[in-house]
Records
---
Amino acid sequence: MDFRIEDELHLLVETTALFGAQKLASNERVHEHQRSVGDNLQDAYTEMGLADLETPDSLEGAELGSLAKCLVNEELAACDVGAAIALDRLGPALYPALEFQGAAAVAHLQDLCNGSIPRRVVLVIEETDRDPHQPISLHVDWVPAQDVAALMLLGPTRACLVVDGIETQPLPASGLRAAGASALTLTDALATEHWTDPAAASRAQARSRLWVASMMLGVLRATCDFSRRYAGERETFGKPIAHHQGLAFLIVEMNMALEAARLLVHEAAWRLDQGEEASLESASALIECIESARWIGPSGVQILGGHGFMADYPVEKHMREVRTLGLMAGGLDAALETAGRKLEAGAPPLDIAMPTGEGE
Amino acid sequence: MDFLIPQETLKAVEEVRKWGRDAMRPAGLEADRLGSPLPVDHPYFHRSLEHGEGRTKWRPGASAAGRPGAAVHAMWLAEEGAYWDRGVMVANPGPGLPEASVLAQGTEEQKEKYLGPFIEPDRPRWACFAMTEPSAGSDAAAIKTTAHKDGHAWVLNGAKCFIGGASRSDWILVQATLDASQGRNAQRSFFVEQGTPGLGDFKIEKKMGLKAYESTSFTLQSCRVPLENLLGGESRPKGQAGFKTAMRTFNAGRPIIGAMAVGMGRAALDEAIHFAQETGLIKRERIRDRIECMSRKIRSARLICLRACWLVDQQRPNVMEASMAKALGAQVSQQAAGLGLEILGNVAGTGTHLIEKLYRDTKAMDIVEGTGQIQRVIMARQLVGLPR
Ligand SMILES: Cc1cc2nc3c(=O)[nH]c(=O)nc-3n(C[C@H](O)[C@H](O)[C@H](O)COP(=O)(O)OP(=O)(O)OC[C@H]3O[C@@H](n4cnc5c(N)ncnc54)[C@H](O)[C@@H]3O)c2cc1C
């Protein structure tokens, strides 16, 4: 057992945090207002290697694993989650490409994104597999993206990539506006590529959930940190509000829940990095983040009282965004479904058997 | 025991329902889309006036005694109004929050002067109550706005924030202290009329929700008002009366705020159920169970609000129940909106669904008129003698 983060990852976390603090945090409201991040920022992100964290070595990426990605996501999202999503062009759509096929599919997705206008690939998780030979008609009510290069549909055992015929309709959006927001429609579109492999699908789904969960951790951390600092400074009835036990306990509960959720995310990520399927663990980690977000977001606003309700402070934005984030990758109900199915199939939820490194 | 709702109340609720559907809901959605309060000359306000709103209960010479069952009746109407749009409800013209204080404490001249124009208003008119300051909200005894006597005038100095409708109000009932070192004992309320020199720097805040009405900060800089603008006049009793008057304004309102929250929670749940039916999600046990749980919580919160109001009607103490109603109502309304978001799934992300607006709107209910924590402090004082 060792809860320390390896030196190499530690350095990565530190440089990411610095990038976040300098380039994202101070422009959070600007990005939200503009509904995009600037080209300069995208370039800086790529230059730092953040765009190719999980990209295979053969494509000159760092080929790091889930844990590294989760750590980076948390750092960026703690500064500006909308920008963090906007900057990550492939987002969780990377995972089906990686898990089903590998470098070739990833290279293809990268090419699709790197046109004259930067575009993104969007992942949609579906309850049932598509027949890849049938035309696909579908409406997705909301995705946090504006310019969509391709749509990756991920079912229980199969992934389909759709490149042509994607119609987008801009939306006001309740949060994550920096990443853009649209409704997507496909009418009789054809999958340009498709893969079938239950194990790959399961891992892709697990990694996608951790992608979302780790972004949520960042926002939750930002809420916890901001409101705790504020509570130390603001005074009522002759003392800092943090020293009223009612609020002190709330602050403790928030930080406890954050740590608990974070450890679930880290353990699941570690298991994935060991080659496990970690389907139950990833679903649980996301569920925990979503459940905690239900009350941590609003509590951040609450601690600031009336000030928290105003756009002058970031907590109202956190409250909206963390809830919106929880809708991604199928959201709560899909994760509950996965976890429930695993349990039904007899997965021992608290099994202490260590991974063999060969997958399940 | 009798849980039957009187016919008269049912009829009144039905009226609010019609008005809410036709006028309030659309106005609220419009303001939310615009991201700013409904302007003073918005047609909604004129319609609202024609519809009979924006008026005072006060009549010259009439006794102050309320009619029997008035609080419970008011509770049902508050719940129904907030169901359609709580922001618009607050935006409505009328003597608003300070009316109760003026009725309870004002001199006959003050009632005539300040409530008189609201009997048959010639145009939409507003009034507001200003307690909160940038550095003092929950700790209302710590406000710093001062009032001192100078010849034939009171001179006010200070800053207020988050005041509902301040920039459009005919007059603002401003809470100020005669001597900040004396805490609550030295607080008094003053009528400050719009346009009084020294009253200014109005700034409308950008809010997360409840966008239909303005929450405004302003300053008072050597703002002189005549001596007779002191609420209750010079001869009113000394001691804690000033602070108590202000607190009474809030106390009376607590179960009503709770009921508004219940109405908002009910709106969110109705929308969620509707969505679940349309999409077939209602067939899923997991969804059904959560809807059952939520409707149970809302129902119980409503009953607590009702009981708190019933105690008012019985002229019995209701400190515990009023705080419970406020705390629980705010809690369940947020939970209902949150559940709604989960049921909507991706639709919640669009930023176009009523539930998403309610998710933002309901948050304020745990902050305004005594935060959830303050309600718990009040209850803990009652239950376990929590020291101040
Ligand atoms: C939409 C909106 C409309 C409003 N309209 C009006 C209006 O018309 N007129 C008006 O006068 N005011 C108005 N207010 C202000 C409102 O009444 C205050 O925001 C509220 O009383 C809280 O005060 P505060 O914001 O200063 O928070 P603080 O008092 O600074 O509280 C910060 C946090 O500390 C907690 N806290 C404080 N003391 C304790 C304690 N002893 N124990 C445990 N926790 C504690 C609070 O619960 C809160 O979570 C409005 C506010 C909003 C959001």
---
Amino acid sequence: MRSTTPVQTASGDRPRLARHVRLRFDPARGQHVLLTPEAVTVLNGTGAAVLELCDGQRTVTGIVAELRGRYASVDDAEVRRFLDRLAARRCLELGDAEVGRA
Amino acid sequence: MRSAVDGAVDAPLGLLAELTYRCPLHCSYCSNPLDLAAYADELTTAEWRRVLAEARELGVLQLHLSGGEPLLRRDLAEIVQYAAELGLYTNLITSALGLTPRRAEQLLAAGLDHVQISLQADEAALSDRLAGTPSFERKLAAARLVKDLGWPLTLNVVLHRHNVDRIAGVLELAEQLEADRIELAHTQYYGWALRNRGGLLPSRAQLERAQGVVRAAHERLQGRMEVIYVLPDYHSRYPKPCMGGWGRRQLTVVPDGGVLPCPTAHTLPLPRASVREHPLRWIWERSPLFQRFRGTEWMPDPCRSCDRRELDFGGCRCQAFQLTGDAARTDPVCHLSPDHGLVAEAVAAADEAARRRDAVLTPRRPGAARHPGTTGPRA
Ligand code: SF4
Ligand code: SF4
């Protein structure tokens, strides 16, 4: 049994990696990985690009816009689902400076 | 997974470094080997550095520092720092005895990423009795220190007959300590725990109550604290996917440099492998020990023809050996195993014994296991 609460990121959220989470490039596998005490998540190129933009400054909208500048096709809903999943696993914190969040 | 036969073996993700089997606690559910003294010739700092460098090279990304009590190694901060330099994620699994402010600050400066503290119970008298030494207050102080220094706090609680009725209290304590995560895991019956199994197995009634408490806590603590509840495999229909498969994702290095696919595999009658004799890569990829139960080729029926064989890998080899004498049999925990009666009997006996509450537990202590061999320690 595991208590992962579904989380929905809002456009104004400013996600950043939780403090105990590390994003690293793994030369042995030639891929980026997300490290937590209990899991290793191997990321594809886009996943890593999204997380590198999660700096606690950019909003979700901002992140998607930035990605659109870099990649031909960026699916907004897909990026959000990816962020939702990581937030539910508490890998991401969803700070929002202006509005605040319960 | 690719099979070992075509020579391509996946790289391991995690290394469990059991730095020492020395420990100030005497938990009767400890899964360390019975012959603790046999591991006194511990790897030196230089040897650990070499092991970590080789592990990183092999593809390891996570380093779990455990024991025994890893804080008893004076070079712990040095080991952490080197691991951090290599880019390994470092996780300390500790009883917290010895986690003084000075020590904690050293570890933080060395780059330690995460700390897990074990708790025995929610109040001093029971906790100290289970740990075999006064330790409760010091654990709480250490847990607060972890939070103060900005680490997330994970608490580990091993459950058994004597504390499973206290889960509500434990969760309350975890809330007070502002834990970020709590792992409530039922005892796994290896080492000292297997020796004490009759006195540790909870009754079914206890388990049902516990599950109710955990379910309610999931609701109440949503978004504040992650609660992980690991069911006891003796009471499950299927076995646990032990280590995510033999020699597939994880490896363990024990205090004297022995390398194992899981921390209890020293109980199996298999050839040994040691970092003092071979490079880690050879051990992972080629040693007879790691090849023995890799993949699914070795499986007998019912596993061989079972749909779940890539999900649970036939369960735990150590448990199969401990209970049947044959490490290649289906884990008797599985209800499809021809040996399942062995587990069913132990579970039934626990229901009976829990009613009597008179079990004698042997606290782990060097030399306390008077009949080595009877529960399958290292030969
Ligand atoms: S289970 Fe208890 S005795 Fe065993 S290593 Fe952990 S703290 Fe020490
Ligand atoms: S028969 Fe083997 S593979 Fe199938 S569920 Fe049982 S242990 Fe797992």
